Amino acid sequence: MKLLILNGPNLNLLGKREPEIYGLETFEDYFRKLQLKYKNVELDYFQSNSEGAIIDKLHEVGFSYDGIVLNAGAYTHTSVAIADAISGITTPVVEVHISNVHQRETFRHHSFLSAVCKGVILGFGLKSYDLGVESFL
Ligand code: DQA
């Protein structure tokens, strides 16, 4: 089983960024824990602040990996291009969010990605990624 965790813009700042919303743990620390927990899963991780790089990564892994756990950050609410990339690949994608976006500003309530993803997990803090990985097992 080969899975990719794909993080979008500003998620490189986890641990420092708005800790009251996103927590104090860095993603690198959390990812190491995930790798230890899911020893039988080949878990890769990629983060980019740029929409094009996220799309390129989806194209790169989207015909060979078993699943992608995607937190597209703010691109979730804006990007038809990422939605098209998800539609164009064969690997299933699960959309995750750390925060419960439905408790936040109304512009965060709409996702261009949900309709083309296999499922959506949100609001469980970093554990949302754990549940995203679990969904493929
Ligand atoms: C987020 C929610 C988005 O609205 C926001 O732009 C993010 C993070 C989350 O994980 O809760 O960058 O995707």
From TrEMBL:
Residues passing through the membrane, by range: none
Keyword Lyase (UniProt): yes
E.C. number(s) listed in UniProt: 4.2.1.10
Record-listed substrate binding positions: 71, 77, 84, 98-99, 108
Keyword Transcription among record annotations: no
Source taxon at top rank: Bacteria
InterPro entries linked: DHquinase_II, DHquinase_II_CS, DHquinase_II_sf
Catalytic residues, chain numbering: 22 (proton acceptor), 97 (proton donor)
Site (Transition state stabilizer): 17
Catalysed reaction equations from the record: 3-dehydroquinate = 3-dehydroshikimate + H2O
Pathway stated in the Swiss-Prot or TrEMBL entry: Metabolic intermediate biosynthesis; chorismate biosynthesis; chorismate from D-erythrose 4-phosphate and phosphoenolpyruvate: step 3/7
Pfam families, alphabetized: DHquinase_II (PF01220)
Keywords, in A-Z order: Amino-acid biosynthesis, Aromatic amino acid biosynthesis, Lyase
Subunit relationships: Homododecamer.
Family assignment from sequence similarity: Belongs to the type-II 3-dehydroquinase family.
Main function: Catalyzes a trans-dehydration via an enolate intermediate.
Record protein name field: 3-dehydroquinate dehydratase
Gene that this sequence comes from: aroQ
